[in-house]
Design brief:
Number of domains: 1
CATH topology: Alpha-Beta Plaits
Order of helices and strands: EHHEEEEHE
Helix content: 25-40%
Radius of gyration: 17 Å
Strand content: 25-35%
Structural class: alpha+beta
Distance between the termini: 17 Å
CATH superfamily: Dimeric alpha+beta barrel
Largest sheet: 4 strands, antiparallel
Length: 122
């Protein structure tokens, strides 16, 4: 089954890391990504630019509004994602819990819908 793992991080926390701490976290993340690829779990993984570079778009009553930055005002922002193939939710949680930045933020694990359902929204 496919799962999307959303990595939420506080930019201030990451930016406060020393160069050595950042290099270590980055190296650990890249090594874990290689391990997951070798085990056939990773389908895709991408880092995102800062939430400061985001644009939020809404359409209401046919009118489009554009806002700089993310809509939600939170300490943690979506910093990246990785899509995995796991046997079940338990295995997906085990995989996500070893993602290095989970120690600094959080990882949301959500099953992928193979197609948009007809009978319900969620």
């Amino acid at each position: 089954m496919k799962y999307i793992c959303l990595a939420y991080e506080e930019e201030r926390t990451l930016n406060s890391l020393s160069r050595r701490e950042w290099d270590s976290l980055r190296k650990e993340t890249l090594e874990y990504l290689v391990e997951l690829r070798e085990r056939g779990h990773v389908l895709s993984a991408e880092a995102l630019q800062s939430a400061r570079n985001a644009t939020t778009i809404r359409v209401r009553s046919g009118k489009t509004s554009i806002t700089d930055g993310p809509y939600a005002e939170t300490k943690e922002q979506l910093g990246g994602f990785f899509m995995i193939d796991a046997r079940d939710l338990n295995e997906a949680i085990q995989i996500a819990s070893r993602w290095p930045s989970a120690r600094l933020g959080s990882i949301e694990v959500r099953p992928i819908e193979e197609q948009l359902r007809e009978e319900s929204r969620y």
